[in-house]
Amino acid sequence: MWFLCVFFHRLLDYRRPEVESLAELFGVFDQGEGGKRLQWKLPLNYHADSPFHFVDLPSEEIARKIAKRSILVKGIYELWGEGSDQKELEEAIKSFPDERKTPYLTEGSTFRVVVDSFGKVITFEEQTNLIEGLSYIPFMGRVHLKNPEHKFWLMVTDGCGTNNGLPPVVEKRVFFGREIGGAERKLLPTYQLKSRRYLGPTAMDAEMAFLMANQAQVRPGKLVYDPFVGTGSILVAAAHFGAFTMGADIDIRVVRDGRGPNCNIWSNFQQYGLHSPVGLLRADNNLPPWRPGLGEVFDAIICDPPYGVRAGGRKSGGRKLLKGTVQPYTVPEDKKGDHIPSTAPYSLVECVHDLLDLAAKMLVVGGRLVFFFPVVRDEVLGQPNYPQHPCFAMVAACEQILSWRYSRHLLTMVKTAAYSEEVAEAARLMHLEFKENHVKWLEEGNLHSAVFKPAEGSNVPDLLKPKYRGKYV
Q1: Rounded-to-integer distance, Cα 375 and Cα 358, Å
Q2: Count H helices, E strands: the chain?
Q3: Comparing C-alpha atoms, which of 231, 228, 238 is closest to residue 201?
Q4: 309-313 contact pairs (CB < 8 A, 24+)
Q5: CA distance 214 to 109
Q6: Which of 320, 406, 419 is nearest to 367 (CA)?
Q7: Span 37-59, mean pLDDT?
């Protein structure tokens, strides 16, 4: 069944992947059909960035579930008609099968018609005229504005002459349809960061945290892990969808202390009445604390690895320790209560390698790894050089533009094979190739000031190096 899917006009690259992830979550594809995609099409002469898309879904129930849970879907509708003007719209609605219209026009039912627009502002008088122009539809029920049984939408787009930077539309278009499902509009205001009790400089925006949870197909009863938990923003979104959560961070002051007994990660969950994490660890992604042979325990790993924009990556060990000039130290018993272990810079390439290795070992087969990866926005570079692993298949890569030069991509990977010694060796070779490609970018002058510095021994001119001091590959 083809439905009209109307998106909010934001985060354009994330819209279809989110719907596809939710469609799989709600059983559109049978198990074993990984990699399948929904069928999409655009209205006549519409740009791909338009909020109006047609999607093929198996039932209204699936469409309703997707619309209710999605962050970027404004609504999903059974389209009764469309046209370039009111006359064409009338002809289309009249030709729509009566047996599909009649059940929603019966006497005793309640309904409401909502007028919406894209690319233009419609006055109240214009809205009234548009609704009165639908008099040819035989509504038998009574109007109920607050809680109608059936809600109909009349959506108007403007022509390309006044799009004000919006996606170009060759001609004006009018859509009319019955709402199947709409977004939960109270979700994001409820979880907005400005009202959060405990925040850090890298706290994930609520909208993006929920998008990441949807990409990871978080559901009730599943175990979700964030190895760079910070103040817990991503886990809050996962807990909202009923998952058990666990997090880790290298900074013990974040996971243990926060800013006091009523201002810490735990209080963020209490604020929203969510189940607290099953555990919060002081742990190093470079030296994970899991016992050997623990195996596959997580259903999803969702995180925002540190890449040096607001906070640089750190791993255990000071400079002397990393250079091998001193032996690993033992903390005396009387110092353990308030001891803060020393740390050293943690490169992005090394961080991502360790993350993929952790996910390969501890994600269940079919589980999802969702994380951000920074890239340079340069047409000359072509397709970004994404990290790879033999255990994983890439499902989606969604760009969020940070500036004219840089962006970050939300990568969604599905674990397709179990971890083994052979896989570990193949992953090591992939990592070496990935690291070498990044060094080539640097040596060609494609320097990312927020993420990279010239690799040691590279031929990047010395005069460039001070500018990137403190930034790490």
Answers
A1: 22
A2: 13, 17
A3: 231
A4: 309/374, 309/402, 309/450, 309/451, 310/201, 310/202, 311/201, 311/202, 312/345, 312/346, 312/470, 312/471, 312/472, 313/345, 313/346, 313/347, 313/348, 313/351, 313/472
A5: 35
A6: 419
A7: 90
Local structure of 281: helix, strand or coil: strand
Question: pLDDT class for 80, splitting at 50, 70, 90?
Answer: very high
Options 3.30.413.10, 3.30.2130.30, 1.10.260.40, 3.40.930.10; which CATH number does 2-185 get?
Answer: 3.30.2130.30
% of the chain exceeding 90 in pLDDT: 56
457 has a pLDDT exceeding 80: no
CA distance 328 to 259: 31
pLDDT bin (cut points 50, 70, 90) of residue 333 is: confident
Q: In whole angstroms, what is the distance from residue 96 CA to residue 27 CA?
A: 29
Task: Tell me the torsion sign for CA atoms 89, 90, 93, 95.
Answer: negative
Q: What mean pLDDT comes out for the span 446-453?
A: 42
Residue 160: what pLDDT? 54
Spell out a b/e string for 81-113, using b for 16 or more CB atoms within 10 Å of the CB, else e.
bbbeeeeebbebbeebeeeebeebbeeebebbb
User: Does the pLDDT at position 446 exceed 90?
Assistant: no
Q: Which residue, 152, 158, 7, 155, is CA-closest to 75?
A: 7
Contacts of residue 274, defined as CB under 8 A and 6 or more positions apart, other chains included, come to: 236, 239, 240
Q: What is the pTM of this model?
A: 0.86
SS3 call for 118: strand
Separation of alpha carbons 59 and 294, rounded Å = 41
Query: What is the CATH code of the structural domain delimited by 190-443?
Result: 3.40.50.150
Collapse the DSSP code of 322 into the 3-class scheme (helix H, G, I; strand E, B; otherwise coil) and give the result: helix
Token pair recorded at residue 273: 């009445």
Residue 446 · residue 376 · CB < 8 Å: yes
DSSP string of 350-409, one letter each residue: HHHHHHHHHHHHHEEEEEEEEEEEEEE--GGG-S------TTEEEEEEEEEE-SSSEEEE
One-letter amino acid for residue 356 of the chain: L
What whole-number distance in Å separates Cα of residue 408 and Cα of residue 306?
12
- 147 CB-contact burial (10 Å; exposed 0-12 / middle 13-18 / buried 19+): exposed
Query: Which amino acid belongs to residue 120?
Result: K
Using the predicted structure, report yes or no on whether residue 470 has a pLDDT greater than 70.
Answer: no
Whether 77 has a pLDDT exceeding 70, the answer reads yes
Is the alpha carbon torsion for 340, 345, 347, 348 positive or negative?
A: positive
List the domain boundaries for the chain: 2-185, 190-443
What's the pLDDT score for residue 90? 95
